[in-house]
User: Fold these one by one.
Assistant:
Number 1:
Amino acid sequence: MSDSRHEKKKQFCTEKKGGSGKKLGFLALVVIVAAAVGVLLTGQGDSDGYTRIESSGGAVRINLSSIDDGQAHFFRYASQDGNIDFFVVKSVDGVMRAAFDACDVCYRSKQGYRQDGHVMVCNNCGQEFRTDLVNEVKGGCNPAPLTRQIDGAQLVISERDLVQGAWYFGG
């Protein structure tokens, strides 16, 4: 083999030294940054997708500006009877709506709902419910309505109303 061909083969067949440590360090940094961004986006670092919320003065209060994007926002309230999960969504008709993350039929599965465009989808049975009918239609597999009111720039849900839905989430 001629020297130039031998050198060319050697160039492509030998391992390059010194770069692998830098690559691993960079990869580790990317993973750490991605994890930190995930924690910031969920608000509480909850891996379950719920934002923990507490009551004050007998009610939970949520700033409307943080939930008026048309996306379902999922919350978890810790009561004496256990965790109570609910979601809030501004529907296509502009109304702020709230419901327990459960229904009368599938609540035992403890799978709740997910949003797909302008519908909420039961994670257990797959039925779809328009967001503009949340709080309007109840029973069956519809998201169980949760009474709410607007007070200035906040959505307010009474602790009493939340606790009435604790049975959906009990053992």
Number 2:
Amino acid sequence: MARLFSFKPTLTIKGRKFKGLRGFSGKPFHPPLTDFPITCYFLAAVFDVISYIAWQQDKPSIAHDFFVSGTHVIIAGLLVSVPTALTGFWDWLKSTPKHTQVWRTANTHMAIMLTVTAIVVVDVLMRLSGWDEGYAELGVTIISVVVGSLVSLGAAFGGTMVYEYAFNVEQDIDYAYTPSEEDRLPGQKAES
């Protein structure tokens, strides 16, 4: 099985420097945390659209179920957005060179995501105040679609920093890309 799959280098923290709130070298905390709120906010928008349409088509049970599901996922996304924002801010503060293209892109990403978070708080409050209606009303649905769109845009800026600028990407070419039948951990060199 070891000849087909590699597990240990991905799952180990051995040989990785701990960087506090930023995570470990090669294993930052912010990027994997972002997946959860992005997915939750996008799903909440989809669920609210389904709920609103179902209500318009006189299907109150479906409308209610999707509204409840949308509420659960948007609240879950909001809860995870707290550590996501903290780790992202710490990355920005500790490793973004000021007045560079990556800094300006990070500022744009941060501004969009903080705006999304503020709108989500409003969305959640509207949901809870209209809970007895039993479906995603038009106002909630519009806000959720705006949130889903904005979070996708913000994610694109975050992705640009990683995939186009290689921001905060730490790599050891000898460790990562040398053909070998044996798994090596960070900091290990190939055997001669």
Number 3:
Amino acid sequence: MFRLVAGHAPQAPKTPFVLLVLSLLGGGLVALLLLSSASSADAFTQRNLQQENRALSLREQQLTREVAASEAPGELAKRAQKLGLVEGGKPAVLVVGPAGRARVIGTPVPATSPPPPPKPTPTPSATPGASASGSPTPARPGAQPSGTPTPTTKPTTKPATKPATKPTTRPSPKPTPTPGGTP
């Protein structure tokens, strides 16, 4: 296989070296292609996450505005009134002096509830067999006279409406006397 040439060293075959270099170059190109496709897939994922982050940020701002609007004093007063709460009266203040003596400033005023809504007046119900115009409806042949229920049917009655209950008011607390102070 090796030829001996006078004065020269034996030569190794060149094909395995060329194949090794070509396979290293091909492997490098394949690895570069895989890394490039992976990075572009990550770029798409990053873009989608950024869009989702923007949408969530807008939603957070909207919810923050809604919370701020629902915490406004006027809105709180409306919701409290819907729940039947009433505004408190003028409170008294207990002031403790530097010597440890306490005194009450002002007179507490209890909260007053609004008057209850008027009771609904019952409306006269239409008599069975009468139309809206007040004239009796014509009887069908073979039917019983209107006004008497048939044995298989029950007369229809409206359920009575329940009157609204008056919200209860709590008695105002009385100031408790402190030792060594005036009540």
Number 4:
Amino acid sequence: MIFDNRITGLVGQRGIGKTTYLLHQTSLKGASERKALYITADNYYLVEKPLLELVDTLYKETDVRFLCIDEIQKYENWNQELKNISDTYRQFRVLFTGSSMIDIIRAKYDLSRRVTMHCLSGFSFREYLEIELEIKLPIITLEDLVVNHIKITNNLNIPKIIKHFHDYLRVGYYPFFTELTLDHEKFQSIENSIQKVIYEDIATLHSLRTSTLMLIEKLYKYIANSLPGELSAYKLANTLSKDYESVSEYLQILNQAGLIRFLFTHQAGKAMLRNPTKMYPDNTNMTYAAQTSQSKDAIKGKARETFFLSQLQNAGIEAFYSEQGDFMVGSTTFEVSGKNKKQKQIKSIKNAYIAVDGILSGFGNRIPLYLFGLLY
């Protein structure tokens, strides 16, 4: 990350390594020489004294010029204090982490010109392979992938890559895959993170009652345990006997919190943006952690689509719902499938490709699904 502003924010879902990154930056910026400091936003010091006073003390009495603040959403007046720090201490830099729901643009105080925001995603399949196999792999553009997928596959030359891919789908998105041994421990960590997002982050930032938070949790579980095409805001509202407006609002909160992803039609207007065509868990690990009662084939199908969408969106590539395939990216249609599925659905479409799970190398318009994990 390039620190291109005096105040930089790092937002993202719980469990994807924001704290680890912050501690690493504190060390790089001179923590051992007392030139950098790490602090959590709920530290007792900040309960007794304002953040601005801490910065003033550091600026006048120490050599610290780089302050890392973890989980800034837990500090009540963070918006105004960051603005004041930016305006007053020109030689001081702040790096903070926060929930995905923090919205600088719509903050009460004008921070949009003062704060640079970066979104941290979970590991791509490429990053997972780099850590698991201790290798270096290049990032591939989508255009290069589509045109040169056979050459890219041959250059990879990674033994058992499909096994690695299926391991990644199950437990490889979060950094703690290197710290925990058993899958059920990793699944429990994911579930714990989800609970904290709902009952701590969402509760704090939206000041919601426990009964509403329980409903939001139930909405998440419906999405985690259902096939993508089965759900809409209207259907969820009817299932839960709740009004459509409330359910739409809660779905937006889950999306902002980084727990679910939306897929819209390309021509989505304001009304459609409140009712996505499809909904997915944020990543494939969530699908497996949900311990759903669906068949193995249904889970695999959902994980494939979730993987494809998450890798594209995390790479900053817009994808939309396609009636004939699964996804539209620009003028290109993608169908996501297992290796035995035929091309019938996209046979008559120009510029259409199949992202196929379970194949080592592609041919023509059939591209190995795992290659889309090299996009970031």
